[in-house]
Amino acid sequence: MFVVERLTGRKIKVVVEPVVKEDYKNITKTKYFFNWKTEKRHKVYKLRLSGSDSVLGLVSFIKQDDEQRIEINLLSVSIENRGKRKKYERITGCLIACVCKVAVTEYGEYACVSLIPKTLLKKHYVKSYGMKEAGRSVYLEDKCLLELLLKYEL
Amino acid sequence: MKTEKLEKTYTPKELAESFVFRAKLSGKQKKETDRELAEARKKTREKSHPNDALLLRLLQLKYQMEEYSSNAPFDANRSFGFFLRAYLKSLDKKNKDFASDIDIDETELSQILNMHRKPSEKIIIRLEIHSNKTIPAITWFRILEKEKEHDIVTNTIMRKNEGKHVKNRLRIGPLVA
Q1: In chain B, what percentage of residues exceed pLDDT 70?
Q2: pLDDT band at B173 (very low <50, low <70, confident <90, very high)
Q3: How many Å apart are CA A113 and CA A139, to the nearest integer?
Q4: Nearest residue of B to residue A59 by CA position?
Q5: Is B93 helix (H, G, I), strand (E, B) or coil?
Q6: Which of A127, A129, B14, B145 has its CA 20 to 30 A from that of B160?
Q7: How far apart are the first and last CA of chain B?
Q8: What is the pLDDT of residues B79-99, one digit of tens each?
Q9: Cα angle at A20 between B17 and A75, to 5 degrees?
Q10: Max Cα distance, chain B (Å)
Q11: Distance between CA B61 and CA A126 in Å, rounded?
């Protein structure tokens, strides 16, 4: 799995793994926009470059075992990775793909990953990540989930 | 920076590439949202192709094997035979047919499934080819390696027997009084 350095086009290997207690010292609102300490009750994963400790992005999710579904609750990339001048591309895609991998590990062929987007952003999640629309939600399941796993080489 | 300021700083596409914001729904709205999603998923499943379902089952097995071999402590129940059995179950294949698929005797397959025999490298490669590389040989190999690792660490009988074949043992290290 890799991100792309925007200026050079270089592909750089990344690691996505669970956040540990010590990580929260460096996960600040200034850098990651939200107060991530409130997400400790959920599963929280971080993305970093392979060989580096610096966290480029975070995702928190909730397992709904009875529905064989994972709901993405919160996601943010670090401040230097937003907008036109972002340092690395594909961070959010890698994080969503990793949540898909967790869902498949748990639920196999019935795995689903969903989120409830801001209305303004809905069509962009559909376009950028191949998500399907379902009322207020967007989701990945079956073929479109497989396509995202393939795109992010999982 | 508040969310409103974010919306002024970045385009919607840039926001979707950087964030998923917490949904603020009432209990009633959340129930309705979940119901809509369940209905949409039901329709997706009705159109699902068996090949996609099979691929997802195999990926589940692959991810579980990777997780076990890299992170979990040794578990005697999660042997090579256990995962191979799970592979056959995913395919809904009989032992006889699968043995024929990978050109081995049904007896040999049974011995591997029941942990009476270790698979050769040839068989591991054939497993990769059979799954069309969905589960690479290295994933199977690492399960086998985990068993070998455990064997070598815990085999006190072998240590006792092999000790008889060693002379001029070094008088350094953790065991020297």
Answers
A1: 98
A2: confident
A3: 6
A4: B20
A5: coil
A6: B145
A7: 64
A8: 999 999 999 999 999 999 999
A9: 15
A10: 78
A11: 28
Instruction: Please tell me the distance from the alpha carbon of residue A45 to that of residue A43, in angstroms, as a whole number.
Output: 7
| Predicted TM-score (pTM) of this structure | 0.92
Which of A88, A83, A66 has the alpha carbon at shortest distance from A13?
A: A88
Q: How far apart are CA B27 and CA B163, in angstroms?
A: 69
Predicted complex ipTM exceeds 0.90: yes
Give the length of chain A.
154
| Dihedral angle computed from the Cα positions of residues A16, A20, A24 and A25, in that order, rounded to the nearest 10 degrees | -110
B84: left (phi over 0), alpha (psi -120 to 50) or beta: alpha
Q: Is A78 exposed, middle or buried (0-12, 13-18, 19+ CB in 10 A)?
A: buried
Under 8 Å between Cβ of A37 and A24: yes
Asked if A114's CB is within 8 angstroms of B16's CB, the reply is no
Report residue A33 as tokens: 């926009």
Chain A residues touching residue B48 (CB < 8 angstroms): 142-143
What are the two backbone dihedrals, phi and then psi, of residue A84, each rounded to the nearest 5 degrees? Answer: -65, -30
- List the 1-30 stretch of A: residues with Cβ below 8 A of B: none
Structure tokens at B134: 């969905």
Measured in degrees and rounded to the nearest 5, phi and psi for residue A62 equal: -125, 130
Q: Which amino acid is residue A111, in one-letter code?
A: A
Place of tokens 């369940």: B38
